[in-house]
Structure formats: structure tokens, C-alpha cells
């Protein structure tokens, strides 16, 4: 976690390159229905040789959001990557970046959060996914919104290169979220080349 259980922070930076963890969070843990928004900026950077195909990454916290949550995927392997929170929390701006030259491999990318239930806010005002690398791989799909529950008001997915899995097959890109209990109010998918 980029912050403690109950902390409110102005900026946190988590750089992960090795170790044995189930999840990495840019924000603090928070508690259910306690911290909806617990900081200004949270950032997670994934570097090689991180090789954790079961590890999820969250730009914000477990039960806390962030004003600006950023996940930069430079190299390594991870499971699902979320721009915002795990269970609940309000995030103003959530961004997931796969920069040019990145050789990261992930299962799926979500611009929003995961969401625990429909009655707990795990909401994002603006979720952005920037995918710029021909050397990176996504096994399943890219989603602009949340995974299981709740709302992404605006999602923007910017793709400048073909998005492929490890076998070289093209994968699907969605402006909205995955689950039937997710809502994406405005979606934008920008494809270049």
C-alpha cells in the first residue's frame, strides 16, 4: 500500500520490481464506508523482473480512492491491472499507461476499479488507458471501465498500436467495463494506425 490503514496522504509512489505479494495498491487501505477519498496522488510503477502472473495492481486503495491514481506498466508480468480501487472509493482521475517500449504482460487492463457490491461506491470520474507498445501483451482484453460493479462516468481508451496476446493474436478493446453490474456513462475508444 502507498499509505497506511487509516492515513490520508498527499502523494504516494510504489515501485515494484520483485517480491511475493498478492496485490499492489497505490493508495491506502482505508475501511469499508470510512474513506471514500484518501489522497491527492497515488502512483504504482511495475518494473522487470516482476513476474507475478497472479498479482493484481490497483492505482488507488482497497477501500479508498484518490484524486489522481496512475499505474505505469514498464515491464514484468501481472494479473489484472486497475486504474482505481479494489472494493470501494471515489477516484477523480485513474490512468493506466503502457508506454512505448514496455514489454509487460498482463491478463487484463481496466481503466476503472474492481468494485465489491452495487451499494458501495467504487466510482471513477475519468478513467484513461494509454496503450503505446508493440512489445507488450494482454492475454484477455482492455476495458475502459470497472470490472465487477459500479460507475465510470467517462472512459477514454487510447490505442496507438495493435494489441496482441502472447500468441500474437489481436485481443478485444472495450470502452466500457466488464461486469453486468458496471456502468460507463460516456466511452471513447481512440484507435490510431
Kindly summarize this structure in a few lines:
The protein has strands at 9-16, 23-25, 39-46, 56-58, 68-73, 77-82, 91-98, 105-110, 124-131, 137-138, 141-143, 149-159, 172-174, 181-191. It is mainly β and 193 residues long.
Topology:
Layout: E1 9-16, E2 23-25, E3 39-46, E4 56-58, E5 68-73, E6 77-82, E7 91-98, E8 105-110, E9 124-131, E10 137-138, E11 141-143, E12 149-159, E13 172-174, E14 181-191
Parallel strand pairs: 1-3, 2-4, 3-5, 4-6, 5-7, 6-8, 7-9, 8-10, 8-11, 9-12, 11-13, 12-14
Tell me what you see in this structure:
Helices cover 0% and strands 45% of the residues. It is globular and about 40 Å long. The chain is an all-beta fold. The model has no long low-confidence stretch (mean pLDDT 86). The protein contains no helices and 14 strands. 50% of the residues are buried.
In which order are the strands of the major sheet placed? 1-3-5-7-9-12-14
Sequence stretches where pLDDT stays below 50 over 5 or more residues: none
Mean pLDDT: 86
If helices are DSSP runs of H or I spanning 4 or more residues, what is the number of helices?
Answer: 0
Total strands: the figure is: 14
Distance between the termini: 37 Å
Largest sheet: 7 strands, parallel
In N-to-C order, the SSE pattern is: EEEEEEEEEEEEEE
Could you tell me the radius of gyration in angstroms?
Answer: 15 Å
Category from helices, strands and their pairing: mainly beta
Shape: globular
Strand content: 35-45%
Give helix % range. Answer: under 10%
